[in-house]
Amino acid sequence: MLDDFLFRALLAGVGVALATGPLGAFVVWRRMAYFGDSTAHAAILGVALALALDLPIGLGTLVVSLGVAVAVATLAARGWAMDTTLGVLAHSALAFGLLAASFVPEARTDLSAYLFGDILAVSRTDLAFIWLGALAVVALLVWRWSALLTATLNEDLAAASGINPDRERLVLTLALALTVAVALKVVGALLIAAMLIIPAAAARGLARSPEAMAVLASVVGAAAVAGGLGLSLHMDTPAGPSIVAVAAVAFALVAGLSRRRG
Questions:
Q1: Cβ-contact 195, 221 below 8 angstroms
Q2: Tens of pLDDT along the chain (262 residues)?
Q3: What is the dihedral of CA 98, 104, 109, 111, to 10 degrees?
Q4: Angle, alpha carbons 152-182-60 (nearest 5°)
Q5: Is the dihedral of CA 7, 8, 14, 17 positive or negative?
Q6: What is the pLDDT of residue 106?
Q7: Which of 41, 42, 220, 255 could form a disulfide with 68 if both were Cys (CB 3.0 to 4.6 A apart)?
Q8: What is the pTM of this model?
Q9: Which value, to the nearest 10 degrees, does the dihedral of the CA atoms of residues 223, 30, 84, 78 take?
Q10: Which residues, including other chains, have CB under 8 Å from residue 87's CB and lie 6 or more apart?
Q11: Residue 260's pLDDT is what?
Q12: In 54-104, which residue ranges form alpha helices assigned H by DSSP?
């Protein structure tokens, strides 16, 4: 079945949803939506550097995304305003990435695939990388779940409990960087933040506990992948944007249902 490109695409999308679901819950709780954009924009620089140095794309995006994540966490810990820091890093990384890509013929040719994703071209090697990265993210979040949740709810309470909020922020940013590297080929740099935010936002209207929200976010993301691929297959639309569009419809339905209940 792995010889079927559509089946590989589905598996890849589900792997991404597995990571973006619980991570997206923290992004929503902490109001870090812009952070996803910043890290995703930095991934373009990683793509250009990887192509220029003849390195695996996943490695290049991971290294640069990790660098940006560490920079953001460090500056935030030193008291820099998060929105300002993210704004500077997001646009700077994207600008330098596009400049670097202009000097690499391969990057100029394939840039749209990295910006918007090319899930239908996922190979077996890509699939292994996606699932290894997704499982690593999930394992990290499960390991630090209690500490991350406490630091998210109240940093003062976390510090009083012996939890270092700065360390938990760094753990979260590292997990986000790994997710960006994993998801780049599936939905692309410009749509990664949407896969982090929209399924989690939809799950928030249905869940009754943090754990339920994390699980439901992954379920909504996986359903959006299946629905988006079906839409792409039957309507000949781009796969990545189709996935995000289905997720947006799911959010709209949940929002409408919640409003009626209210």
A1: yes
A2: 555 888 899 999 999 999 999 999 998 888 777 776 777 777 778 887 887 788 877 788 888 878 877 777 777 777 777 667 777 777 787 788 778 777 776 655 566 777 777 888 888 888 898 999 999 999 999 999 999 999 988 888 888 888 888 888 888 888 888 888 888 877 787 778 888 899 999 999 888 899 999 999 999 999 999 999 999 989 988 888 899 999 999 999 988 876 655 4
A3: -30
A4: 110
A5: negative
A6: 62
A7: 42
A8: 0.85
A9: -140
A10: 34
A11: 56
A12: 57-77, 82-102
Distances from the Cα of 121 to the Cα of 9, 15, 118, 127, angstroms:
8, 15, 6, 10
Distance of CA 44 to the CA centre of its chain: 14
For 135, the token pair is: 């499982």
Per-residue burial over 74-103, b = 16 or more CB atoms within 10 Å of its CB, e = otherwise: ebbeeeeebeebbeebbeebbebbbebbee
CA 180, 185, 191, 194 torsion-angle sign: negative
Cβ neighbours for 167, distance < 8 A, ≥ 6 positions apart: none
Token pair listed for 176:
């986000």
Kindly state the helix (H) or strand (E) to which residue 203 belongs, with its residue range: helix 192-204
49's CB contacts (< 8 A; 6+ apart) are 55, 60, 63, 64, 100
pLDDT at 108: 57
Task: Specify the pLDDT at position 218.
Answer: 96
CA distance 162 to 227: 44
Alpha carbon distance 94, 205 (integer Å): 33
Q: How far is CA 37 from CA 63, 114, 147, 218, 239, in A?
A: 16, 14, 25, 19, 20
Q: Which two tokens stand for residue 192?
A: 């990664």
Question: Could you give the CA distance from residue 8 to residue 1 in angstroms, rounded to a whole number?
Answer: 8
Q: Rounded to 5 degrees, what are φ and ψ at 126? A: -60, -40
